[in-house]
Design goal:
alpha/beta, 8-stranded mixed sheet, 3 domains, FAD/NAD(P)-binding domain, 389 residues, single chain
Length: 389
């Protein structure tokens, strides 16, 4: 037996779990197909302060603190959200990912880069991975395999796991210019639909512009750039695109194998943010895996406890986020404009909703928003015959 645990994927979630298991005295191997950890990551880089505090994430990667948001409706009605203290950070993902895999290595995990795992085979008392490296094919064995491979579902199909039920698409481009000051801007976009949103993040020397949509086209990003009214010099030939897997997966555990992070759909279904929820999933997995190792019982029933605890703890968050995205994809953009206008003219109601806001947990604000729609907004605001004055 080469390892107690093999983790496929050296992203933040895989590296965090590798460190956690290695610190408990387990032998851990981490395999990643990339030459360098953190290369080619396409993401806004926004990570909540609570995630940083709870999981002791690398402060070295922070390039900006966020304490202020400007949120714009489809017709650019502006609402502000300001706090005295930062509620989120912008991270340099290359540094962030490399720091986490470095911590895993220091804890004792063995890191295999440029190692593409292409198959998993179960035997009576172990699991084998087969991987390619430098033109050759090799294999390693472990008591249990953890799939943390993001949106690469090749291994899911090999072992009968299901992929997450939803795929979102992120498009991002860097614009020259920016002093690192000013509020982060968030835009609710009407194209392709109201479940799409965009962000503009001022950084030192450049500005990060991105959009999230259920469609893979660049339409949402193009809509955002149009709304920015020519403020940025954008080279659309440099747009980067990546899928984001989120939503419930019917099966993320089995005999001697589990999936974590984006590979298990452990992503905020409202915004597509995957790091915090993935780390929660990894923390649950750690406890179940350590119990399984202690009793040498990696059966389907034993590891299914991980699935059950995840669903119990985070299932409502996932489902409510999906519900909001589904509703947003169908409603009229004027309704959102009307709501923004109403909140702008009724600051006490806006402040009440803000008091229920959490950067990483959205279930409470969703429920409060539904009650708000039903009980607070006058019926005339639901009329689409003319815009609110």
């Amino acid at each position: 037996m080469d390892f107690d645990f093999i983790i496929v994927g050296a992203g933040p979630v895989g590296s965090f779990l590798a460190k956690s298991l290695a610190e408990e005295g387990c032998s851990v191997g981490v395999f990643d197909r990339k030459r360098e950890v953190g290369e080619g990551v396409i993401c806004s880089g926004i990570i909540g302060k609570d995630a940083y505090d709870k999981f002791n994430l690398p402060g070295k990667a922070i390039i900006r603190k966020i304490s202020s948001l400007k949120v714009f409706s489809p017709s650019l009605i502006e609402l502000r959200y300001d706090k005295e203290e930062p509620f989120a950070y912008i991270a340099d993902r290359k540094i962030f990912d490399r720091e986490l895999v470095g911590e895993a290595s220091k804890a004792g995990a063995e890191i295999f880069l440029e190692s593409n795992v292409f198959n998993i085979e179960k035997e009576k008392d172990r699991v084998l991975i087969k991987y390619s490296k430098n033109g050759g094919e090799f294999q390693k064995s472990a008591r249990c395999i953890i799939i943390a491979s993001g949106t690469n579902f090749t291994l899911h199909r090999k072992i009968g796991f299901s992929s997450p039920e939803n795929i979102l698409w992120g498009n991002r481009v860097e614009a020259i210019g920016g002093d690192g000051n000013g509020s982060v801007e968030v835009y609710i976009l009407s194209k392709p639909d109201l479940s799409s949103f965009g962000w503009i993040i001022p950084l030192s020397g450049h500005t990060r512009i991105g959009a999230l949509s259920a469609k893979s086209s660049r339409e949402s990003l193009e809509t955002l750039i149009y709304k920015s009214n020519g403020r940025f010099n954008v080279d659309m030939d440099k747009v980067e695109k990546a899928p984001i897997a989120c939503g419930n997966s019917k099966k993320i555990s089995g005999e001697r194998v589990i999936a974590v992070g984006e590979a298990a759909g452990q992503v905020k279904t409202t915004t597509g943010g995957g790091i915090y929820y993935g780390l929660i999933g990894a923390s649950i997995a750690k406890e179940i895996l350590l119990k399984a190792a202690k009793t040498d019982n990696f059966s389907d029933n034993t590891l299914k406890e991980y699935e059950r605890i995840w669903a119990e703890r985070m299932g409502d968050e996932i489902r409510n986020g999906i519900m909001v995205r589904n509703v947003a994809s169908k409603i009229n953009s004027q309704l959102v404009d009307n709501v923004f206008d109403f909140l702008k003219k009724n600051p006490s109601i806006k402040e009440d909703l803000e008091s229920r806001f959490s950067f990483d947990y959205h279930q409470d604000i969703i429920k409060s928003g539904i009650k708000f729609f039903l009980n607070k907004i006058p019926k005339k605001f639901f009329s689409f015959n003319s815009p609110v004055k």
